[in-house]
Amino acid sequence: MEHAELYAQSNSNQYKDNEKILQEYKNKLNWVENEQILDIGCGTGNTTVDLILPIIPKSASLTGIDISKDMIKFAQKTYKNDKLRFTTLDIAADNVTEILGNETFNKIFSFYCLHWIPDQRKAAENIWKLLKTGGMALIVFIAKSSLFSLYKWLSEQPKWKEYMLDVNNYASYQDVQNPCEIYSELLHATGFKVIECYEKETSVNARTIKELEKALKAVNPFINRMPIDIQGEYMNCLMNKILDHNLVKTNESEPQNISYIKPNQLLITYCQKIS
Ligand SMILES: C[S@@+](CC[C@H](N)C(=O)[O-])C[C@H]1O[C@@H](n2cnc3c(N)ncnc32)[C@H](O)[C@@H]1O
Question: Is the pLDDT of residue 258 over 60?
Fold first, then answer.
């Protein structure tokens, strides 16, 4: 995902979900002084700075990491604060601890990121390595989404196939019956105590189809691989399929031009490193 400017303009759905979840957990997190806190997949940094920073103790330090250089550059340019650090890092890499100077963290957050990671085991192991013993992690990602089914369909179309060869590497829990159970098992096996794990439906709201298209383009991992002159056609193809499948509807309780896509299934996990 290398669309920092676009994501910054169109992440209000993720932001609202993150805000609600942090409100729910902020008093459960047992804050102490001088904590080190990490946000994995921080993107443009607005959840890190506008939502996480205000709820942590004043003495805490906060690090945001993201695989995308573009996102990190955007976050560094936009937010300057002594307590903050933004670093480019793949959470599924072999040497995560060394890259962060062998620092370990009291709390780890991750919002809307881990569904992009093919090696779920490696990501869980790295989160474990980066946490101090007794440290807590709040992990939120998309377990299932109608959008991932559409990506699969697009990846079978001759025109888009070559750009989407790794489509099955994403969204590891899309075809799993009980994502909570499977993810909790993985975390247990890694050395975590799972305190809470539940699924929650969330929709993508937009005022217009164009606005929805922009929000979907901002999180599309395939489009940047395509020549610029066919990217518009690719998005048209995706949006037409969304309309054909009746995934966008007018929301009667909202002003006239509000639409929404069928719900994503978020997986919300709160866990502790115990060994
Ligand atoms: C949809 S954005 C979420 C950003 C922010 N957490 C939020 O909730 O608005 C997902 C972010 O995860 C990042 N990401 C994807 N794979 C990653 C990986 N392996 N390691 C670190 N970050 C990753 C992407 O670059 C992107 O910035």
Answer: no
**Alpha-carbon span 143 to 121, nearest angstrom:** 15
pLDDT of 254 over the 70 cut: no
Range 2-11 average pLDDT: 88
Ligand 1: residues whose CB is within 6 Å?
1, 11, 14, 18, 40-43, 47, 65-68, 71, 90-92, 111-113, 116-117, 219
Residues found in the chain: 275
Domains recognised in the chain with CATH numbers:
4-273 (3.40.50.150)
pTM above threshold 0.70? yes
Element (H, E) at 229: helix 228-244
Q: Which residues contact 126 (CB under 8 A, 6 or more apart)?
A: 91, 92, 93, 96
CA distances from 102 to 5, 98, 127, 192 (A): 31, 5, 13, 20
Give the per-residue pLDDT at 248.
79
Q: What is the mean pLDDT of residues 195-222?
A: 90
Confidence (pLDDT) at 82: 85
Handedness of CA 87, 92, 96, 99 (dihedral sign): negative
Query: With contact defined as beta carbons under 8 Å apart, do 109 and 225 qualify?
Result: no
**Cβ-contact 167, 156 below 8 angstroms:** no
As a whole number of angstroms, the distance between CA 275 and CA 264 comes to 33
Distance between Cα 82 and ligand 1 center (Å) = 23
